[in-house]
Design brief:
Largest sheet: 5 strands, mixed
Distance between the termini: 33 Å
Strand order of the largest sheet: 5-13-12-6-11
Structural class: alpha+beta
Radius of gyration: 22 Å
CATH architecture of one domain: Roll
Shape: globular
Bound molecules: adenosine-5'-triphosphate, magnesium ion
């Protein structure tokens, strides 16, 4: 609690108490405990929920604009089906059909319009200057002029992606936004699937791939088929939704995507949480049983998993042994160098240790390589090579 009480915005506490429907004392204590944090430095100053509390998801952003308080609800967690068939039956009990969408692999963005400016919020509720530049170009203002109270929720994918760099979407050469939900700003309530696609079509906004609506009874079988096809293309998986959006969505992913995650993460084995690895191994076990793997399929699955774990680690250990620094190389492409420097500050705020290389001017834009140093993996690997005990 190194926060100076004077620092707290009394005005904000008073005004937001009404809008958030929380007592002023509660808001003060959330600020003191840093559950609700003021974000300064970028335009505009605002507050964000660092954790989920009192009905507000983590990542909820609260802006003060004159005497008005504007709330942008956080994006809800999507639970995962481990065994598809029973999970769909239990979760969507009472519904006759479900809608299937592709789950794209990038990072979650909420786009809103505030004070005439388009703003991109990442999952944790921080305004990302890089993403903001991209969505301002790609999506623009038209949608928000007609619908100022709606939020576009989408996945930012592609290789020029500083958070989840993936080169698996052949049509995306740089980075691009694919919308998957449209929600009300203040309540977070989603529009129905039909309304969402209708609005996106009307405003010429790209969406994730939509497979359509299917009866509950045949859903698992259809999804299994889709998952196998998506896996072949190294794509991530599906999100299963209630067409009226009256139930929370659930997700299900391909074995190939699980393995690709592991391959990537085991290069930086000490920087990722253990649960990241554990949950992925568990998925493979259950999928093998649900899909009734024969001897050969099971053997392949085991080899694939082992390789995804050990090979990237061996690479890392060898590199470190030769004195190399283990780093995640990502890149951004900006119109304006100012955006890159703002993004550098943004990464500092996130506590990421990153080195920005000299910008390269290419086709009217600046390409900048960023090396994110994975300190924990570097230190742990060196120490173990030097004889430290586990
Ligand atoms: P969480 O489990 O909290 O939702 P996570 O980072 O573990 O977060 P993922 O496993 O990637 O999440 O799955 C959820 C995320 O999938 C969403 O937050 C969203 O960014 C992304 N996503 C991609 N495609 C879709 C889609 N069609 N519908 C909904 N979300 C999608
Ligand atoms: Mg994801």
């Amino acid at each position: 609690m190194n926060r100076d009480q004077d620092d707290l915005d009394e005005d904000f506490i008073k005004l937001s108490s009404k809008t958030l429907d929380l007592p002023e004392t509660k808001i003060s204590s959330m600020l003191n405990q840093r559950v609700l944090q003021k974000v300064s430095g970028s335009y505009p100053d605002y507050y964000r929920f660092e954790k989920g509390i009192s009905g507000f998801e983590a990542g909820t952003a609260v802006f003060k604009h004159g005497d008005n308080i504007l709330v942008v609800k956080g994006f809800p967690k999507i639970q995962r089906a481990i065994v598809l068939e029973p999970a769909i039956k239990v979760h969507f009990e009472g519904s006759s059909s479900i809608a299937i969408e592709e789950k794209m692999n990038g990072y979650n963005v909420r786009i809103v319009c505030f004070d005439g400016k388009v703003i991109a919020l990442t999952r944790g509720g921080l305004i990302c200057p890089y993403t903001t530049e991209k969505v301002t170009d790609e999506i623009g203002h038209d949608f928000f002029q007609a619908h100022p109270n709606l939020v576009l929720c989408g996945e930012m994918v592609g290789p020029d992606n500083p958070y989840v760099p993936k080169n698996i979407y052949p049509d995306v050469k740089s980075v691009s936004m694919f919308i998957f939900d449209i929600r009300e700003k203040t309540t977070g309530k989603p529009l129905t699937i039909e309304k969402k696609y209708e609005l996106c079509t009307r405003f010429n906004i790209k969406t994730v791939r939509y497979y359509g609506e299917y009866p509950i009874q045949s859903a698992a079988e259809i999804i299994t088929k889709i998952i196998k096809e998506l896996g072949e293309e190294d794509r991530e998986g599906v999100v299963i939704k209630d067409p009226g959006m009256n139930h929370p969505a659930i997700k299900y992913t391909c074995s190939q995507s699980t393995n690709n995650d592991l391959k990537y993460a085991f290069q930086f084995y000490n920087d990722y949480g253990r649960d990241f690895f554990f949950s992925r191994v568990i998925r493979e076990g259950f999928q093998s049983v649900e899909w009734d793997d024969n001897e050969e399929a099971l053997h392949d699955r085991c080899c694939r998993l082992g390789e995804s774990i050990i090979k990237p680690m061996v690479e890392t250990i060898k590199k470190r042994k030769q004195g190399e620094r283990i780093a995640e190389d990502v890149r951004i492409r900006v119109n304006n160098l100012e955006t890159a420097w703002q993004f550098e500050d943004h990464l500092k705020r996130l506590g990421v240790d990153a080195q920005f290389e000299e910008p390269v001017f290419e086709n009217g834009q600046y390409l900048i390589l960023i090396r994110k140093i994975n300190k924990s993996t570097n230190d742990r690997t060196s120490a173990l090579l030097d004889g430290q005990l586990w």
